[in-house]
Design goal:
Blueprint lengths: L1 E5 L18 E5 L1 E4 L2 E4 L3 E5 L10 E5 L5 E6 L4 E4 L5 E3 L44 E6 L2 E6 L6 E3 L8 E2 L9 E4 L5 E4 L7 E4 L17 E4 L6 E7 L2 E6 L2 E9 L3 E9 L9 E4 L2 E5 L4 E4 L5 E3 L4 H5 L11 E5 L4 E6 L9 E6 L4 E6 L2 E5 L8 E4 L5 E4 L11 E4 L2 E2 L5 E9 L8 E8 L7 E7 L4 E7 L1 E8 L10 E10 L1
Length: 493
């Protein structure tokens, strides 16, 4: 008998076939790897029970000059703010044009003649998909400025909970979004209905938009075949993302004020809210890849799970996808609708410090990193509540787990029997392990366990290839490192 280390690298690998993930974690939910060790993500608790009458898309938190904290979020037909205590106030602008809670495309059942296309084959790209409505929310000093593409007007809210957000005087209309630059200009993205136009107000004056010798208002049109979706501030620049490429706006002073250059091609943004910014750069989900910009040129982000994510993405509802940073753990999270769902029900997360990926299932429609508040905040897709995350280890009915791809514990074609597991676990008894064995890649899989881990744990199973599943107990802060198994070699089969 001999002890063999199950030294499984951190993170999930889910590209290609089952055997390509040999010796790696292949599936997971509600777990992360931090400092190379598996642990559960933090749980969540209710911050506000009142979320309005529809799902919220687009969110911001900030602190005003009186040190009061605020949360802003919008639905397809409403705009809300929440106080520090979680009290909701309706600040929907008068005359707001309602958008769509779901993306709209005539691609569902009955959308064409019966029998026109083979079952399981995508229809031709004949119809335009009108995206679900999401809000661009930005701080203007202590005030809130807001815009969504379906309404197109730019609004400002000046902290009076008894008053609605008001339209900005002289600002362009039919805009796709907004961005407040680090130099304190307000950008209108897709200004005036031109999907490639960037128009900006005078510095520190969001009511002056007509260029003159006495101000710095102006506009430029991007040289792109795409349309502008979003803008973010990163690395001292204003990054503008279109459906096709990426551009940066650099302040150059009068008379031109801003200069814009393309920094990436074939790197279009997949959804308006699918980009998040941290000190390491801007990270976003594209149409079939992930990308990062940290100055210089856009780089494709090599992902261990991109095959899994982009092949199980509801492309008709991808406009609901959103990104948020979780700076507590050096992560970027993307929430998106899987192919079997019309709402965000899955997530993929990237640890930009340790270069690892993890995946899971969780229904959230929008969220923000910690900052004004101590914890990350997210709105739920099912009960519409506002939750603060990374609090305790309560997940409702969900269970944290991770499961490996197949791995060999013998040599060559050898069949082995395992009699004992020596776990590397921080708190004995908070984790269960299940082993699944096969003699051939497509053979019958047999399951053994779950075993409650003790040191050592008596187990009994035989096979040529094995996968291991670990499940953590709720309400427990467990850790799993390098487990070892006691192997008895057998013969070939």
């Amino acid at each position: 008998m001999s002890l063999i280390d199950l030294n499984i690298p951190a993170g999930v690998y889910r590209n290609g076939t089952d055997l390509q993930s040999m010796g790696r974690w292949r599936d997971a939910n509600l777990v992360r790897w931090h400092d190379g060790v598996m642990r559960p993500i933090g749980g969540w608790r209710t911050r506000s029970n009142t979320a309005g009458n529809a799902k919220l898309r687009g969110m911001m938190t900030w602190i005003d000059n009186s040190n009061d904290r605020w949360i802003a979020a919008g639905s397809y037909n409403k705009l809300y703010v929440y106080s520090d205590a979680g009290i909701q106030y309706d600040i929907t602008p008068t005359g707001l044009t309602a958008g769509r809670e779901d993306a709209d495309a005539n691609t569902g059942f009955g959308g064409s003649f019966f029998g026109s296309y083979s079952y399981g084959i995508a229809r031709p790209d004949f119809s335009r998909i009108d995206p679900a409505t999401s809000w661009h929310l930005q701080p203007w000093g202590e005030y809130l400025v807001a815009c969504n593409a379906d309404d197109g007007k730019i609004y400002e809210w000046q902290l009076n909970t008894a008053s609605a957000a008001a339209i900005l005087s002289n600002a362009p209309t039919s805009n796709r979004g907004i961005l407040v630059t680090q130099e304190r200009f307000l950008f209108a993205l897709g200004a005036g209905g031109n999907p490639r136009k960037v128009q900006w107000s005078d510095r520190e004056d969001n009511n002056t938009w007509t260029a003159a010798a006495t101000n710095e208002a102006g506009d430029l049109e991007l040289n792109t075949a795409g349309q502008i979706l979003a803008g973010v501030n990163v690395q001292g620049q204003s990054l503008i993302l279109t459906t096709r490429d990426a551009h940066v706006a650099n302040y150059v002073g009068p008379p031109y004020v801003y200069g814009i250059e393309r920094v990436g091609t074939s790197c279009g943004l997949g959804a308006e809210q699918a980009c998040a910014v941290v000190d390491a750069g801007a990270f976003w989900m594209g149409v079939g890849s992930f990308f990062v910009y940290s100055g210089g040129r856009v780089q494709e982000l090599q992902s261990d799970v991109s095959d899994y994510v982009f092949n199980d993405l509801n492309k008709a509802q991808v406009s609901k996808a959103f990104a948020m940073a979780n700076s507590l753990f050096g992560e970027i999270w993307w929430f998106y609708p899987s192919s079997g769902s019309t709402e965000n029900n899955r997530y993929v997360a990237y640890n930009y410090i340790e270069n690892t990926w993890h995946i899971g299932e969780l229904a959230r429609t929008t969220g923000v990193d910690r900052g004004a508040f101590r914890q990350p905040m997210m709105f739920d897709a099912d009960d519409l509540k506002l939750y603060e995350h990374e609090i305790g280890f309560d997940y409702g009915t969900l269970t944290p787990f991770a499961e490996t791809g197949p791995f060999r514990i013998g040599t060559g074609n050898q069949v082995v029997s395992v009699t004992e597991l020596v776990p590397d676990e921080k708190t004995q008894g908070d984790v269960n392990a299940t082993f699944k064995t096969r003699f051939y890649p497509n053979g019958t899989e047999r399951s053994y366990g779950p075993y409650s881990l003790s040191n050592p744990t008596s187990v009994r199973f035989t096979g040529r290839q094995v996968r291991m599943r670990v499940e953590g107990q709720r309400l427990a802060d467990w850790r799993v490192g390098i487990n070892r198994v006691d192997v008895v070699p057998g013969g070939e089969r």
